[in-house]
Amino acid sequence: MKLRVWIPLAMLSLAAALPAKALLTTSGREPIHSSAWKGPAEKVINHPARYRGTIGPIAPIAEFFYTGRGEELNQLLELYEKIPERQSTLYLTTDPGEGNVLVRSSIKGELTVTLRVSNASELKRWRIPKGLRVERLDVLGGSSASKQGELEQAVREFIGRHSAAPDDRHESRSKRFSQ
What we know:
- The chain is of the alpha/beta class.
- It has helices at residues 2-22, 40-45, 71-81, 120-125, 146-161; strands at 25-27, 50-55, 62-66, 89-93, 101-105, 111-116, 133-139, 175-177.
- The protein is 34% helix and 22% strand.
């Protein structure tokens, strides 16, 4: 009796999931335009360092992946700082993942930028614009290797050097990052 109930439910679940996948739009390097992204936000989305993106039916509404070193990523950060919305936060993580930079867009077009740090020498190449707040994202299931610990320490020191002025200082909070 139970098997007769579960089989139709499983088929119904699969049938519902297929149209959602069909609503997912993928992109490469071609320009993408949306009324939600204006001015600097559109320039961030369409930056030449972007190599892949998805715009999908469930939140976050869009994810874009960027790769590059040094000057390309510094240009991306300068554009991100110019977006006229509430104070922008740049998130740093040592979580291994796709690309150097992940940009997420909400349904309202608000962007968040996460830099993936794979070694401490990368931190020396980045110029963090003064208008960006810098926070660290915790690594889920983080490695206990000493190399990972050294990298986490380098990220903490980097964030300390890029803190806001004392009157603008806020309590830095760690956020969980999962992918």
